[in-house]
């Protein structure tokens, strides 16, 4: 077939075409070529070639028919397009004419031209409806250019706003398919923002109207549905939903700030948010504080129920205040001691729960309060925290702990108040951290700051006063316990043995037990407190411990060997005092140890010892009081040397 096509030349001449065919056919030549003329072979070639030409003709014919059909189709489409363009222009022309007529008709007197004005108005309305319908159809087909043309024509008609409404309505069809309406709204606005400038001459106005429609209809309906069902029945869920919905609405507003919505988009979006939530925010703080109070009370009650404990009433008023002042000044226990069975009635779990509830309340307060109301609302939440954490829980535990401290003359007293001190210190740190982290940022630039700081100071001072009272009474109990040990274990014969040559002990049993008790209490104090408080309390205990031993030693008469044993005891007490790590306490026991040397030193050396470095600055009466404890004091020789 390709060979047949090669025989065609332009222009086509039949005789030349046959000549070329014969010439190329073997045996078809007549000029004595390499092969003789062969008519049969030439005939066969002609027949075959004719068949090829027929096949080629059919193919060409089919191609021609196909091209003709395509041409006719394109001609029809072109004609239709021309017709549509012409029609479109006639719309524009008609719109221009009816618009001008409508303006002219406004100036005509109604009594003379009522019929004309009515016809113009009817035509105006019909054409306006046709344009809006055309815009609607173009939007459904996705024909942006056609939408732009119709919108441009409608711009001068009263129904232009209706055209915008149609666009906004159809934009939202099928837009809310996810479970997240806020994400759907963001995607919708992003899509419209890319498109609206290609359709309308005032895209920022149209986009703003779409956003307003989304907020006032779709979002407002969704928010109402989510909040109304739990508003009266479940305050906790209501507050969580309100916070979540307001936060997500604000987040959506932040995303929309990147679009061109006109001059003051911040105010525009803020008003939209306010219009949705205003009915819920007006009484927000009342719901918040009411819920926080009931929730805090429930947390505390659940804890005391778990301890099978009925809270005792802490008395208030004149008599109770008088008792408190007497107790603080005299350290006397007023009323019977309460056995708490080692329970501090402080719970870190309760504290964490109360602080967590308050933290969430502060976060909601920050988000949902009007800026002008924020400091006042935050202060209300803080007062609830003070009421339930500081007063109802910590202060109650301190009062109960104080009532549980036994009198100083009790035997084998269990001193649990230091456990109260330890837990109270931990809770104070948590309370202070929340104050700084969550309350301060809400009130730092308002007059409420000083009010909150003052309230916190008063609470802490009140707590510290009770802690100091409890610690002081606990120290008295410790000293009382040491007195019981000394009274029970120390024998007069310890320091004046019957057989001076047969003393086998290094220090007395009373000393061993007292030192063991003191070391245990020192460790407990170190574990219960921190910072300078440890040193302060250990200093006080050390001074009282020294006074106790000093006065205790004054009760006995000492032989030479007994004096040596007393020195050994004081050496052990001094070793125990080193655990305090308080220089002043150690100095007191060093001095006491030096004083005990007066019990055993030879009479001739008394004056020399008294004038030594450790005793030189002491009052002579103190020195004399120790010398008087010697069993040989009344001998004329000793008295002469010390006088």
From TrEMBL:
Q: Which residues form the Exocyst complex component Sec10 N-terminal domain?
A: 39-90
Task: Report keywords, A-Z.
Answer: Coiled coil, Exocytosis, Transport
The protein's name in its UniProt record: Exocyst complex component 5
Cross-referenced InterPro entries: Sec10-like, Sec10_HB, Sec10_N
One of the record's GO cellular component terms: exocyst
* Chain coiled-coil ranges: 50-88
Instruction: State any GO BP term from the record.
Output: exocytosis
Q: Could you say which protein family the record assigns here?
A: Belongs to the SEC10 family.
- Exocyst complex component Sec10-like alpha-helical bundle domain spans which residues? 93-642
């Amino acid at each position: 077939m390709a060979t047949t096509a090669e025989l065609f030349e332009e222009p086509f001449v039949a005789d030349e075409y046959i000549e070329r065919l014969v010439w190329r056919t073997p045996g078809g030549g007549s000029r004595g070529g390499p092969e003789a003329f062969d008519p049969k072979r030439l005939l066969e070639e002609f027949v075959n070639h004719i068949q090829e030409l027929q096949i080629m003709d059919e193919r060409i014919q089919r191609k021609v028919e196909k091209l003709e059909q395509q041409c006719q189709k394109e001609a029809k489409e072109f004609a239709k397009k021309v017709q549509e363009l012409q029609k479109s222009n006639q719309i524009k022309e008609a719109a221009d004419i009816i618009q001008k007529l409508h303006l002219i008709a406004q100036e005509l007197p109604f009594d003379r031209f009522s019929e004309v004005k009515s016809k113009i108005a009817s035509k105006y309305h019909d054409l306006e409806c046709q344009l809006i319908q055309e815009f609607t159809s173009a939007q459904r087909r996705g024909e942006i250019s056609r939408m732009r043309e119709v919108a441009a024509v409608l711009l001068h008609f009263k129904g232009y706003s209706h055209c915008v409404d149609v666009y906004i309505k159809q934009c939202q069809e099928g837009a809310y398919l996810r479970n997240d309406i806020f994400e759907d709204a963001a995607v919708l606005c992003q899509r419209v923002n890319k498109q609206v400038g290609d359709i309308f001459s005032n895209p920022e106005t149209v986009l703003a109207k779409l956003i307003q429609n989304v907020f006032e209809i779709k979002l407002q309906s969704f928010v109402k549905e989510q909040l109304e069902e739990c508003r009266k029945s479940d305050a906790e869920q209501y507050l969580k939903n309100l916070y979540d919905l307001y936060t997500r609405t604000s987040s959506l507003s932040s995303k929309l700030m990147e679009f061109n919505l006109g001059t003051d988009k911040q105010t525009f979006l803020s008003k939209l948010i306010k219009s949705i939530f205003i009915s819920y925010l007006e009484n927000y703080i009342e719901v918040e504080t009411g819920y926080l109070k009931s929730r805090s009370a429930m947390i505390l009650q659940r804890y005391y129920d778990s301890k099978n404990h009925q809270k005792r009433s802490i008395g208030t008023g004149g008599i109770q205040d008088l008792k408190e002042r007497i107790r603080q000044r005299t350290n006397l226990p007023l009323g019977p001691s309460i056995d708490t069975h080692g329970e501090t009635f402080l719970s870190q779990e309760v504290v964490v729960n109360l602080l967590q509830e308050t933290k969430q309340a502060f976060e909601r307060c920050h988000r949902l309060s009007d800026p002008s109301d924020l400091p006042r609302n935050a202060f209300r939440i803080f007062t609830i925290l003070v009421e339930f954490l500081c007063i109802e829980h910590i202060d109650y535990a301190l009062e109960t702990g104080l009532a549980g401290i036994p009198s100083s003359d009790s035997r084998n007293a269990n001193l649990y108040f230091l456990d109260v001190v330890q837990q109270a210190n931990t809770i104070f740190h948590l309370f202070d951290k929340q104050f700084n982290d969550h309350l301060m940022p809400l009130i730092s630039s308002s007059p409420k700051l000083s009010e909150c700081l003052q309230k916190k100071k008063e609470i802490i001072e009140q707590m510290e006063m009770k802690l100091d009272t409890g610690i002081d009474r606990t120290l008295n109990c410790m000293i009382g316990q040491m007195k019981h040990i000394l009274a029970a274990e120390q024998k007069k014969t310890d320091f004046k043995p019957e057989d001076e040559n047969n003393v086998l002990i290094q220090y007395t049993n009373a000393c061993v037990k007292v030192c063991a008790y003191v070391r245990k209490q020192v460790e407990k104090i170190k574990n219960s407190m921190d910072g300078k408080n440890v040193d302060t309390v250990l200093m006080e205990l050390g001074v009282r411990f020294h006074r106790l031993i000093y006065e205790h030693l004054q009760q006995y008469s000492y032989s030479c060997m007994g004096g040596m044993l007393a020195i050994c005891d004081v050496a052990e007490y001094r070793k125990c005092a080193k655990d305090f790590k308080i220089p002043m306490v150690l100095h007191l026991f060093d001095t006491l140890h030096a004083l005990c040397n007066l019990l055993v030193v030879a009479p001739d050396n008394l004056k020399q010892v008294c004038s030594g470095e450790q005793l030189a600055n002491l009052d002579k009466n103190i020195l004399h009081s120790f010398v008087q404890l010697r069993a040989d004091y009344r001998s004329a020789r000793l008295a002469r040397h010390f006088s």
